[in-house]
Amino acid sequence: MKNSHPLIVVFSVFAMTTALTVAGCSSGSGGVADSQPAELIQGCAQGSTVSVSAPGARPLFENSGFGLVPGFQTDFSRSTIPASDVMSGGPPKDGIPAIDQPIFIEIAEADEWLGEDEPVFAVSADGQTHIYPVQILTYHEIVNDVVGNTPVTVTYCPLCNSGLTFRREFNGELLDFGTTGRLRLSNLIMYDRQSETWWQQATGEGLVGRYAGFRLELYPMLMMPWDRAKDRFTGATVLSQDTGYARPYGNNPYAGYDTSRQPFLYLGPQTPGPFTAMDRVVEVMQGGENAVFPYPILAEVRVVQRNVGGESIVVLWEAGTSSALDTRDIASGRDVGSANAFRAEVNGRVLTFEAQANGFRDVETGTTWDAFGLAISGELKGTTLDPVVGVQHFWFSYSAFVEEGHWQSLE
User: Fold this and answer.
1) Into how many domains does the chain fold?
2) Is 245 a member of any domain?
């Protein structure tokens, strides 16, 4: 069995020293704009270059209580965090509009505007697969959808590079979500329109309102490049650019962000070593445990197998996925690869995986597998591994939230 690199799994945050780091936007000269946060965000949305170190970020609430927030019916008497943790990201409530009535198109039509290496998310349920291009999620952050018979909300926070899918059924209600226009630790704070509870996107934890202290149920999804997604899921449909909003899809409004030294509008603990704040990781949540697998290590070893939450989990990494937060044109972003996590068990038998020149193989049957859990040749050809929840993050985001999670069970 493959042993993990000693730095692969991390279960706690390290130094908790507070750091103040804020990004500004310029027209591309590399200078810092002398603007308020709302103007900074608007500038980024217009295609400006992100530049780090503009001073002056302030929490949205200076005192210990939330008080009343215009436009919200949230029960602000219930909260799990101090109000001073919350910042304005610039846009107002629903200023970044969620997609509530997604339109899906065939693969051939989407192939006309998606680059081969562009990152997409794939969510499968009840025999159906929906594909969500990151170029669209960058401008909307939330898609309320139903895949098969399963109501889900697919989310992406560009500032944290965090992609998560949640089940929308919660406490007997069918929720749908929007953006609050607020951030915590640089991460999107969502709200549900039924109770107007505020939720942390990076964890699914209720922060403020009726469901403060509870947690949304995560649902597995795959991150992969478009060329692999369309070959793997030939019968899938793809989220259309016909969203009802005029946005420059395919254009990255945060050009250069993922090679900057510090995250945007981040008020939180100092990011611990040994990785940089903007290194990518995939966090596996399984059986009440979490484990983090950093991309810099995965790029070297390509496969890591660990016991997480009492199950054997294999994480597979493959080159060939463009960064959505690098160059102005997402399709031209540098190759950062993609990593996904799966149960290593097939038909009641735990398999042991290793990398080979053309994909991966399991030692027990000699079957060859691709990086997205499909057996492509050998005894188990056609078999697929079950994906588990693997949350994509920047390292700073994982580090900031790893000690979060004091939520309650509804049961």
Assistant:
1) 1
2) yes
